[in-house]
Amino acid sequence: MRVLLTGGAGFIGRHVLSELLARGHDVRVLDSFRSDVHGPSSAKVLDDAELLIADVRDAAAIDRALNGVEAVLHLAAKVGLGVDADDLPDYASSNDVGTAELLAGMARAGVERLTLASSMVVYGEGIGHCPEHGAVRPGPRIEAALAAGNFESPCPACGRPLETALVDENAPLDPRNAYASSKVAQEFYAANWARITGGSVAALRYHNVYGPGMPRDTPYAGVAAIFTSALRRGQAPKVFEDGRQQRDFVHVRDVAIATVLACEKHARGVRSFNIGSGTPRTVGQMAEALALALKGPQPAITGHYRLGDVRHIAADSSRFRTEFEWSPAVEFAHGMAELASL
C-alpha cells in the first residue's frame, strides 16, 4: 500500500517506518521535527521513505501529504503529561486540531483507512477490585493523601484499598491530564470522521512503550529513558511514590508490528485495541532491572508524586491478540538488557 505515516521520525514512528518498509509498503512520512520532541540537533533524514517536513496542523501540507495515499498511520502528537494549566492550549492545538486537520484532509482526498496511535492514559486509573464491591472505578487521587504517603487508590464506596485488575477496552474513559484528554478527543474525532465518510479506524491504545531510540533528554523521555540516563551518570534512578505502581511495559518492536498489522488488516468500522504485554510490572522492578544491567546504584524510592499520574494501569490485550493473531515477542528481561546496552 501507499501509506502516510505522521510522526514517522519519532521514537515509535521510526520503528513503525522500518516495519512498513520491511513488509513492502510505499511510505511517505510527515513530521514537523519539533525541537521539544526530537531535540535541537535531530537529523532531518529518513532512509528509504519520502519525507515531508511540515506540521500536521498545516492544511495545505496535509493535502500534499495525502496525494495518492491509501491509508494513514497517525502517530504525530505532543506527548507527556501536561502538568500546568498553561500546557492545555498546546495539547489541544497540537493533538486535537492537528488530528482534525488530518481527518478533514483525508475526507477531501477520499482516504478511508486510519490507524490512530492512542494511549492507555485514556483510562485514568482504570478499574480496581474491591473485596466487598467488586470491580469499581477509582476516584480521583487526592493530593493530601499522596502527600501523606497514601498512594493506593481507595474504593469509592468503602474506602478499602483496591486490588489491581487488567483493563480491557470496555473500561470507562477517564482522562486525568492534558495529554490524556487530547487522546480521548483524537479518538472521538476519528469516530466522527468515520461516521461521516464510512472510513475505518483502529485506535491503538499503547501502554508503556520502551526500547531502542527512546528520547533521553527531552520532556518526552519515558521513565525507562530517565532511569537509564541517571544510571549512566552514576546516579541512582529516582523512583516516585513507593515504586509499587504497576504498568504494562511493552517493547517498541512489538508495538511497531502491531501497528502495521492494524493498518494492513483493519478495513471496516471503528475499533479500539490495547497494545501491551499483558504482564503488569512495577516501576520499581523496571528501575531495579536497569540498575542491575548497568551495574549501577540501586534505585532511590523518593516518595515524590505528580497529581496527574495514575497509580496502576495494565492492559488486557486479548482483543488485539485474538483478532490479529499477534503476541509480543520481546521478553521483559531481554528488553531491559538491550535498553541498558545501547
What does this structure look like?
The chain is α/β, with parallel strands linked by helices and 342 residues long. 36% of the residues lie in helices and 18% in strands. It has eleven helices and 16 strands. The protein has helices at 11-22, 35-38, 59-65, 88-109, 143-147, 178-197, 223-232, 252-265, 283-293, 318-324, 332-341, and strands at residues 2-6, 26-31, 50-53, 71-74, 113-119, 128-130, 134-136, 163-164, 200-206, 208-210, 238-239, 246-247, 249-251, 270-275, 281-282, 300-301. The strands form five sheets. The protein has a seven-stranded parallel beta sheet, with helices on both faces. Helix 2 links the parallel strand 2 and strand 3. Helix 4 (88-109) runs parallel beside helix 6 (178-197) and helix 7 runs parallel beside helix 9. The protein is globular.
Quick structural gist:
This protein has eleven helices and 16 strands.
> Helix count?
11
Q: Could you give the order of the helices and strands?
A: EHEHEHEHEEEHEHEEHEEEHEEHEHH
Mean pLDDT: 91
The best one-word shape is globular
Q: Please describe the biggest sheet, giving its number of strands, its sense, and whether it closes into a barrel.
A: 7 strands, parallel
- Percent of residues in beta strands: 15-25%
Supply Rg: 20 Å
Residue share in helix:
25-40%
Helix/strand/pairing class, anyone? alpha/beta
What is the terminal-to-terminal distance?
33 Å
Low-confidence stretches: none
Q: How many β-strands, per DSSP? A: 16
Strands side by side in the biggest sheet: 3-2-1-4-5-9-14
